[in-house]
Automatic annotation (TrEMBL):
One of its GO terms (biological process) is L-tyrosine catabolic process. Homogentisate binds at E346, Y355, H375. The active site is at H297. This is homogentisate 1,2-dioxygenase. Pathway: Amino-acid degradation; L-phenylalanine degradation; acetoacetate and fumarate from L-phenylalanine: step 4/6. Belongs to the homogentisate dioxygenase family. One of its GO terms (molecular function) is homogentisate 1,2-dioxygenase activity.
Amino acid sequence: MFKYNSGFDSEFQTEALPNALPPFGNNPQVCPYNLYAEQLSGTAFTVPRKENRRTWMYRTQPSVLHNPFEEVEGGSLSHGPFTRSNGYQISPNQLRWNPLPLPSCSETFVSGLTTIAGEGDPKCKSGLAVHMYTCNRSMINEAMYNSDGDYLIVPETGTLIVQTELGYLEVPPKFICVIPRGIVFKVNVEGGCRGYVLEVFKGHFDLPDLGPIGSNGLANARDFEYPVAAYDEVENVEGKTKEEKYNWKLINKFGGLMFSTERCGTPFNVVAWHGNYSPYRYNLEKFCCINSVTFDHPDPSIYTVLTCKGDDVGTATADFVIFPERWMVMENTFRPPWYHRNCMSEFMGMIWGKYDAKEGFQAGGASLHSCMTPHGPDYKTFKGASECELKPHKFDKGLAFMFETNVILNISEKALAAEHRDVNYFKCWEGIPNAFQGKEEKEGGEGGENKKRKIGP
Ligand SMILES: O=C(O)Cc1cc(O)ccc1O
Ligand SMILES: [Fe+2]
């Protein structure tokens, strides 16, 4: 339906009307079509050139035309600092949630956002938040921008039509989109929608380095799609009062709180733009998976789609990782995820189908295994994967993902107390027997062959 340009992190130029971009330079004395030039900076002016992101927009009116913002009740999205007094707790427990029910009353993407967890402070540009949304209504004459960071949106049910200042993105399940800090957007939907949002308060998402993998593979740069310029029809405001002209609601998430105001006409009035700071979408089915073809289950970092680098080299503020359809061919290997404890925290969601490590992890549900919280396959999965014949096998039963972060997340009390929380989750590991056979009975003896284990009584 919509057109796109492609290429991660590229410098694009796009015009909804011919020759709407200045032929050279960014801010000529008078712009083509008498448009207003406006720069949006996504990095400090002075960061190194290869990290520098900014976009020049040529719009029918500049963004300044709005009334003063006032703080509003942010509902479940407004998170303020992630403190106990503000309704956040920490927990070293294994946590899991069943799917959030789709809304029974009218909700937009923004009103239907609810913060699940977070750490850090958007005012200091550090940390992240994890949100979920359910919605069933398009935003009409209503738009939002986030001063706090970049949104990475993962739909699970329903297609989002994301209208942004820079053009449209269609984002069905199995696609993701990123809306960088400051970009004004609205979301149109048809029917019930549900999904996940990762918000990073510092930096931007990058493709991970590939090291010895080489110059291709995982998420390929050419598969990232960027909007082409599109603007709303200009309204005839002749004879209208100021109130009638200021007919759009503009919401701003700012320092963890929500603010709202009225703005003069549509904010989607950019006729042309050029630059490298833009929202984009990516089809997760284009992910080129790298996996073991000999033995052993590799670390899940091989499935990293996008990473938001942290302060320490190789340690992300947040990675977006998927567990896509793939062939499992490893020999003499327990193929599902191993039991493990991780210094990073793992928030997981399910886009469709089933997860290969557990029963009961449902599409639209979520789990959180925080820093050093033990987790891994439930006993049934362990037993099955330890005893099955190891033939080449295509895992094609579902698509899970992980937001993996360096921080310990504070969890919203609302999410902890929610009815859809699976408080019996920890029981999925109950009954794992002690299968140790004792020194005398050990098969193979010292240095013996790595024999197939016998499981259970
Ligand atoms: O915990 C999980 O299910 C996610 C995960 C998957 C995997 O293949 C290896 C490690 C890991 O944390
Ligand atoms: Fe894990």
